[in-house]
Amino acid sequence: MKAERMASLPVLAVTAGEPAGVGPEICLRLLERARERPFPARIVILADRSLLAARAELLNLPGDLRDWDPSLPPQAGTLEILHLPLAIDAHPGRLAPANSPYVLALLDRALAGCLSGEFSAMVTAPVHKGVINDAGIHFTGHTEYLAERTGTPRVVMMLAGGGLRVALVTTHLPLKDVPAAVTEVAIAETLRILHREMGSKYGIARPRILVAGLNPHAGEGGYLGREEIDVIIPVLDRLRAEEDMTLLGPLPADTMFSPPVLARGDCVLAMYHDQGLTALKYASFGHGINVTLGLPIIRTSVDHGTALELAGSGQADPGSLLVAIEHTIEMVKRANRKG
Questions:
Q1: Where does the chain bind a divalent metal cation (predicted)?
Q2: Which end of the chain lies in a sparser environment, N or C, as judged by fewer CB atoms within 10 Å?
């Protein structure tokens, strides 16, 4: 790779996530890929150096990472590390609430680097929501955390994989709380962000958006629920008329993911988490990714959890992380061309 091309590479911050989970080892597995076929980017792993060294020794993985120094020229076939210290030693599969501030410090440092221009984008390995809350820190997920940290009033969680792009109106809510959260304002703001970011991040200037109903059979004319009639249809009609959006729906969620229906759209908007993501993860598990839309930065993530039962076993699949990195590099390149 020519020196001038290397110097212009995007720089991706990759947070290693929950130290007891598979995040550290799937980050280490990136080095295997970098040696075989260098990434068209500089990959900076944010993690505790001793954690990565211990996991590399346990699994006989390459662990020779360079210290991150933006003043140094990039080197093909290597990854770089930005060291942030654990509170206590981490062990595969054994959660420790004391390390929860470390997990959030990884996110804060990556975010700060993205906002300052040090990093082009951030990619996140999985965190464990339960142990963070056990530490006394309210945390509902990466998406919500990054929105709060950037002062973004609304962001949109979208997963991509298996030929699908599925965005959500509501994210990590108990099912009983979903109907009250599916408001005209929430749907309209989500659709505006999705419409705009399909253009900026995917180059689709006029996306065709398939919109799910909330109830079985999309309410069946009010017989199975009135949210479609009272909430969803009015906002779709207004956005079609006033903002010239191409919106199909509300559609019954049980048939929306059939090939003939999917062929009519570029992306899907589901009303709640499992309504949209069950089909997507069936189609792409292990190779899907999470994209946060609406932030002032580019952020992607793996589509799986911490997999504590696999941590330290050598069986963790880095496929989703590899796809997230490749996807992110393309988004950064598109953003640079537009800029």
A1: 172, 217, 273
A2: C
- Residue 143 assigned to a binding site: yes
201 is in an annotated binding site: no
- Tens of pLDDT, residue by residue over 26-40, are 999 999 888 889 999
304 labelled ligand-binding: no
CATH at residue 208: 3.40.718.10
pTM, to two decimals:
0.90
Q: Verify that 264 and 308 share a domain, yes or no.
A: no
Rounded Cα–Cα distance for residues 305 and 287 (Å): 13
154 annotated as ligand-binding: no
Q: Is 142 annotated to bind ligand?
A: yes
DSSP 153: S
Between the alpha carbon of residue 337 and those of residues 114, 200, 226, the distances in Å are: 18, 10, 45
Query: Number of folded domains in the chain?
Result: 2
List the Cα angle 235/237/242 in 5-degree steps.
Answer: 95
pLDDT tens for residues 107-126? Answer: 999 999 999 999 999 999 99
124 is in an annotated binding site: no
